[in-house]
Amino acid sequence: MAHLKAAPRILCIGIPVRDLTFRVEAVPARGSKANATHLAEICGGNALNAAIAIARLGGRVAFAGPMGDAREMSSGFILAQMAQEGIDTTHIVRMPDVTTPVSAIMIDATGERTLTIYRDPGLWTIKLPDADDLLTDCRAVLVESRCASFCVDLCAEARRRGIPVIVGVTAASHLLFASEQVQETAGIADDGEALRRLAVLTPAFLAATRGPNGTIWLNETGELEETAAFPVEAVDTLGAGDVFHGAFALRLAEVEGVREALRFAAATAALKCTRHGGGQAAPQRLEVEELLRDVRIAPAGIEPR
Tens-digit pLDDT profile for the chain (305 aa)? Predict the structure, then answer.
């Protein structure tokens, strides 16, 4: 889409994936088989799904990370999809004799997804381009948590330059977890208490997404707040969290306020869940703005325990 001159540039760092998605009535039991009602071949991966969302919401987005050998089909397919979305692929590093990840995903009648994925161990030997090349004119960096091993130094440099780093590395300024992730990380079976425990260890903004139950987060005074989810009929949750992260990163770069960014992200993820296609079902900016106008959901405070 055409970008406004002032549109912020967001750098997404991750490992793209070629997804084969199958719609099924129910995930088959072990040792059985099931007929799919629909098959789609799409590109995915946490950071790439987020990048697609950012591009469709009006941001300028660049992507950095490893991709397989130039001779293989999967990487060519993904690059073509990225070009169609207007994503800058200049900083993608091709890895000779390495395979681009491929996943098989089953999406049941409730929209829930079950998947298996292959990632070549060689992908983690990547050396990213120079920080000056990646961070010039950058307003935010969004990172997949699994990529920490090859981008921690870059993210630390981004923080030194005052650039927000979002999602999943130790140098992050904004850590957004899924509910099960924050509980596992903190070792506490309660989202709010888990966030409080992590707050002792990091000055980063902390939040936990809970799908249709909204997002719980700690404000600047350490109190729990909640951003409600937008009520929709979900048909496909694949990539919803990634789309949420992308929308949050973009809106944070635009307005520098977490409340507005969280509500914008919630609306974007809700719309994505109403259609099939993983991250490639991310909505356009006008759709999100219309939903925000039509549905008035005010953040609710949560009393400390």
Answer: 444 457 999 999 999 999 999 999 999 999 999 999 999 999 999 999 999 999 999 999 999 999 999 888 999 999 999 999 999 999 999 999 999 999 999 999 988 889 999 999 999 999 999 999 999 999 999 999 899 889 999 999 999 999 999 986 678 999 999 999 999 999 999 999 999 999 999 999 999 999 999 999 999 999 999 999 999 999 988 899 999 999 999 999 998 799 999 999 999 999 999 999 989 999 999 999 999 998 864 444 443 33
Is residue 61 within a helix (H) or strand (E), and if so which, with residue range?
strand 60-67
Cβ-contact 186, 163 below 8 angstroms:
no
SS3 272: helix
- Tokens representing 270 are 């809700």
Beta carbons of 78 and 42 less than 8 angstroms apart: no
- Which of 286, 287, 259, 258 has the alpha carbon at shortest distance from 271? 287
pTM of the model: 0.90
